[in-house]
Design goal:
Radius of gyration: 22 Å
Order of helices and strands: EHHHEHEEEHEHEEHHEHHHEHEEEEEEEE
Distance between the termini: 37 Å
Helix content: 25-40%
Number of strands: 18
Number of helices: 12
Strand content: 15-25%
Strand order of the largest sheet: 1-2-3-6-7-8-9-10
CATH architecture of the largest domain: Alpha-Beta Barrel
Oligomer: single chain
Number of domains: 2
CATH class of the largest domain: Alpha Beta
CATH topology of the largest domain: TIM Barrel
Length: 423
């Protein structure tokens, strides 16, 4: 398996920030979110991913506002958020500030009220001849990918957003539920307009043929299991080993929260507890791959956001989000130090229970990162590497060190050490 498409240059060493427009501000509009762009730029965010911006089907909708993921048109704007001019302004302003902007695309299903429902053969039907959905989401209905007409219309709809609004790519919802050959056809068609970034919500290795990045679900689920049973530590290492066996350009997306996790499984603090949540945030940002930060994680946000109703994020409690500098530090080092780029040399620290570490190097740019995932034991890590010697600083303290070929690192329970080469 190999990725067949050259990734856009700006995706090397990048990061993604997921934007929940509905909950981001009191107004819940493109215009009001736009006011946050300078702050996010300062934080080091590079790619803005907007949850679906299309209108929501009113038939069988859930809650008072319905699900973003039950659309009624692929080529219109959800009026809650503004209009097409407002969206164009947001994209233009984001581009002026140096962001890339991708939109969420839901290709597997639509809402019951979608304008395509009048087209014969475009949807899967059950034995009674009625619209249906096979995964139990009763506010949506499944599209029929045996229909070439439907596929063509879907591709044209995606091209519309690229050509008309100059978006920079797509985050493809439940990508593995849609045929792989469709995604190949779609990427080829859309990239006749411009090169794009493609993020697939799936953790199936063959989908890395077409997507620049896919989800690290195996890793995330293993971390959740580990919280409940510390003996499951090997599952985390196994997931990471599987990812490291993929072609280098098949990037994985690491995160401790996103819209689904936050609303349905709990905040990162509910899932992991305070020390481990921070540990895993650092891991997500520094392990080879692409980190994702969800709306409000920089506050931090301790509440589950309602999915189908208005439930705004409260930015007023602090003049500056408490974890703004934390994330800024992590994202800045990824950008400044070439050791965090896609083609850096990766060496894993082996054979430690509940400890995980790695050494990264590219063109004399180096980083040494070690985690202690034990809740009670202080660990002593012995490490030898001919490439290790050099001058480093500790990422969050700024304290400088001269590391030798052979080093011993002591690390407290639920803590991490990050050494970055002084250039």
């Amino acid at each position: 398996m190999s990725t067949q498409y050259p990734a856009v240059a700006w995706s090397n060493g990048t990061n993604i920030y997921e934007v929940n427009i509905r909950q981001y501000t009191k107004e819940g509009t493109f215009k009001s979110f736009q006011d946050h762009l300078p702050r996010l730029k300062e934080m080091g965010v590079e790619i803005l991913w907007l949850m679906p911006i299309t209108p929501i089907s009113q038939e069988k909708k859930k809650g008072s506002l319905g699900s973003y993921y039950a659309c009624s048109s692929y080529v219109e704007i959800n009026p809650e958020f503004g209009n097409k001019d407002d969206f164009r302004d947001l994209v233009n302003e984001a581009h002026k500030l140096g962001f890339k902007l991708i939109i969420d695309w839901v290709a597997n299903h639509t809402g019951w009220q979608h304008e395509w429902t009048k087209n014969d053969g475009w949807y899967i039907k059950n034995a009674k001849g009625d619209f249906t959905e096979i995964h139990g989401w009763d506010d949506v209905i499944d599209l029929n990918y045996e229909s070439e007409e439907m596929q063509t219309a879907m591709i044209e709809a995606m091209k519309y957003w690229v050509g008309e609004f100059d978006i920079d790519g797509f985050r493809c919802d439940m990508a593995h539920l849609v045929r792989l050959d469709f995604w190949h056809k779609t990427r080829n068609a859309c990239e006749t307009i411009k090169s794009l970034f493609w993020l697939g919500e799936c953790d199936q290795d063959n989908y890395s043929e077409v997507f620049d990045a896919t989800y690290a679900w195996r890793w995330m689920h293993a971390t959740e299991t580990f919280v409940k049973d510390a003996n499951k530590w090997p599952d985390i290492k196994e997931a990471l080993s599987q990812y490291r066996d993929l072609p280098r350009q098949a990037q994985k997306l690491y995160f401790t929260s996103n819209h689904d996790e936050n609303s349905w499984n709990g905040t990162e603090y509910e899932k992991y507890g305070m020390p481990l949540a921070k540990n895993l945030a650092v891991f997500s940002c520094l392990f080879p791959g692409i980190p994702l930060i969800y709306s409000g994680q920089e506050l931090p946000n301790y509440k589950r956001l309602l999915f189908f109703d208005k439930d705004e994020i409260d930015w007023s409690s602090h003049s500056k989000p408490q974890l703004q500098d934390f994330y800024q530090t992590l994202l800045a080092v990824r950008k400044k130090n070439k050791a965090f780029e896609l083609d850096a040399q990766f060496t894993e620290i082996q054979d430690y229970d509940k400890a995980y570490g790695f050494f990264l190097e590219k063109e004399n740019h180096k980083a040494m990162v070690i985690f202690n995932f034990s809740t009670s034991e202080k660990l002593k890590i012995n490490y030898t590497n001919d490439e290790l010697p050099g001058d480093y600083y500790q990422l969050f303290s700024g304290i400088t060190f001269r590391l030798k070929k052979e080093e011993t690192f002591e690390i407290l329970p639920n803590d991490f050490l990050v050494y970055v080469s002084r250039l």
